[in-house]
């Protein structure tokens, strides 16, 4: 693989940076709301699973 000079590397970085497409404010807001909703759903799900396993372990320990 050929070595790239620092100047050429910098030019390539600038060229790639020009290709970046930033999301609009609407897309960012929609994505943030979606992430928040998914976070709440997963938190409730894992709370339920943890409570279920806790109850099972408590039951099994009460048998001993």
From TrEMBL:
Q: Mind telling me which GO cellular component terms the entry cites?
A: plasma membrane
Q: Name one GO molecular function term.
A: protein transmembrane transporter activity
GO terms, biological process: intracellular protein transmembrane transport; protein secretion; protein targeting; protein transport by the Sec complex
Membrane topology per record: Single-pass membrane protein
Q: What is the protein's major site of localization?
A: membrane
Q: Where in the cell is it found?
A: Cell inner membrane; Membrane
Does the keyword section mention Ribosomal protein?
A: no
- Entry's InterPro entries? SecE_bac, SecE_sf, Translocase_SecE/Sec61-g
Quote the Pfam families the UniProt record gives.
SecE
Transmembrane segment boundaries:
32-61
Q: Keywords, A to Z? A: Cell inner membrane, Cell membrane, Membrane, Protein transport, Translocation, Transmembrane, Transmembrane helix, Transport
Q: Which PROSITE patterns match?
A: SECE_SEC61G
Subunit and interaction comment: Component of the Sec protein translocase complex. Heterotrimer consisting of SecY, SecE and SecG subunits. The heterotrimers can form oligomers, although 1 heterotrimer is thought to be able to translocate proteins. Interacts with the ribosome. Interacts with SecDF, and other proteins may be involved. Interacts with SecA.
User: What is its biological role?
Assistant: Essential subunit of the Sec protein translocation channel SecYEG. Clamps together the 2 halves of SecY. May contact the channel plug during translocation.
Question: What family does the entry list?
Answer: Belongs to the SecE/SEC61-gamma family.
Q: Which HAMAP family match?
A: SecE (MF_00422)
Q: What name does UniProt use for this protein?
A: Protein translocase subunit SecE
């Amino acid at each position: 693989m050929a070595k790239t000079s620092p100047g050429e590397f910098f030019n390539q970085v600038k060229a790639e940076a020009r290709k970046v497409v930033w999301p609009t404010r609407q897309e960012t807001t929609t994505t943030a709301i979606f992430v928040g909703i998914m976070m709440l759903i997963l938190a409730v799900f894992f709370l339920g699973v943890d409570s279920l396993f806790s109850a099972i372990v408590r039951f099994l320990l009460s048998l001993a």
